[in-house]
Amino acid sequence: QVQLVESGGGLVQAGGSLRLSCAASGRALSSYPMAWFRQAPGKEREFVATISWNGGSTDYTDSVKGRFTISRDNAKNTLYLQMNSLKPEDTAVYYCAKESSPSYGLGNPYDYWGQGTQVTVGS
Question: What is the DSSP string of 48-92?
Fold first, then answer.
């Protein structure tokens, strides 16, 4: 069993920064790709960023490219999302997720999710 716990959300003004963390327990996640998703009020959950098991490969949705950086520390079993130049449209609940297969980039489903952390960006 895996437990994922996000932290680091909060209220920030447009142009500001936040760093989200996702701490995993119950099982080492170093062999699996991980990802961040977000869901804004009244909208579908959307993909934000993903990272391979060793951090060597990453991918982002177009709207956050150049502003967000996904990273991981396998020794600490923790995933991160550094968010810079935040915009009001980044306001959402952010979730981390573990991919079900070790194979990166194949569109495998996600089998574990955190409870989410709220990010609110004021204009």
Answer: EEEE-TTSS-EEE-GGGTTTEEEEEETTTTEEEEEE-S--GGG-E
